[in-house]
Specification:
This protein is mainly beta. It is built from eight helices and 19 strands. A hairpin with a 5-residue loop joins strand 18 and strand 19.
Amino acid sequence: MFDAEQSMQLLKARDVTRQSGLTRFTSTLVVGSGRGDAVETSRGEQDFGRGTAYAERTVSIPEGFPEETARQLGEPGKETFAVVAREVLVRDGAAWLRFRPTGVGPLSDATRSLRPLAGETAPYGRTLAETIASARPQGKPSVRQDGGREYRALVPGGVAAGVLGKLRRMADGWNSEAGKGQNGMFPMEVRLDARGRVTRATMDLTPLLRYMRNVDEVRTIRATYELSGYGGRATRPLPDPSTVQDAMKTLTLISEMAPGDCALTVPGIPSAAMVRTVPCGRKHDLRVFAQSLVDIRGSRAVDEDAAREEAGEGCRELFREAPEEWRRDAVPAGRYRVTGGSRFTGHVGASGRSHSRLKGRFTCYIRTSAPGS
């Protein structure tokens, strides 16, 4: 492998790694601010030969961390995932929920954040494993005493942004600019063992901050990926098929719930997009108090935040009008939440006039229990 042309060695390292059977892995994303670091860690095992993975993802966020970035990272706590036959499974209590890839529409929107967890290069995705094949070595690698190599490389911005995970929703503008010239390349270090298998990769994603919005208090973003125990035996059993439920048949889109309905949140699904409906007399995590439809036309329609802002204003009024017995259960008291999305359509008519429209469906709800309780 190390006899190959230098520019091809990291691409070949990807292939050698994929031929190495089962390995343990740890993937970490550290987002730094003046008020401490938020850390997202995924740790588990993946079998390259079988295309399967088991991973536990934890998120820790310090007190006072920038609110908008914290919201994108998700609630602190632990979630457990498995990947089997390119389907993502999420553990929900004693059961596992299976999410199949979907095309377009509300179901696709609700599960969009899960799909990248079925990786292209490694069984478990959204890690630096997906960037190594695109990395361009800079200079000759250094040779370690054990025969391994250490490379300094650069990765195109469009590839690097994939490692941001949920934070990618805050990226704005890098598609057209970040791929141009040196400013669009992001530094990466890759370590291989003597057989050419990846053992560690690190990337400084801080330059991406210039293409992200609402990150004024964030100072650094760094990612790390480590592999070990090549060729070992699995210690984390994959889900028993008898415990697996079809998420599309078990869960309900929150947008389909009626005002007053209650539900339990589901691990792995951000913003309560899909939930388990339950009677309000049983333990529940949220209660829907309204559905808000938004239809914006004209120049305001080109503002992607306009629909959410209008939905938020509508939910504010609807919250005041909701029955007291619903509002008094809100956690924290007096606070409501909004989830949903919008779609933009536009065309230029024969007269040359632009016709823009932004339509959205949003759900207004309250949390009735603290996250993780």
